Predict the 3D structure of the following.
Amino acid sequence: RSLVGSEMCIRDRVDPSFLQKPEDVKLHRHNLLCLVDNFFGSIEQSFLWLPSSFFVILGVVHKYVEERFPGQGRVILGGFFFLRFLCSALVSPETYNLIGTQLFFMGKIS
């Protein structure tokens, strides 16, 4: 599912130097917060689409981490999920079809 659709205006900004009228900051801030809320909501909803084997693997990893490092299972799983899935999607959202429009970037750091 696309996180950035036509219903949201991706060019909205919160930096007052980009705005025609300074009073627009609150509106643009609200738009940005809606976009971020939609982003995290989409992440939460994506768990419904994960295969059950994914959760089995996480359970096994959690078990072995807890045996070796008691109390650290959730931390390790959170880091694993963040680094393996979330970071790659944030760095390259077009690769995972997370954006429906081509965004303009000044340059891409690889």
Remarks:
- Residues 1-12 have pLDDT under 50 and may be disordered.
- Residues 19 and 66 are 51 Å apart (CA to CA).
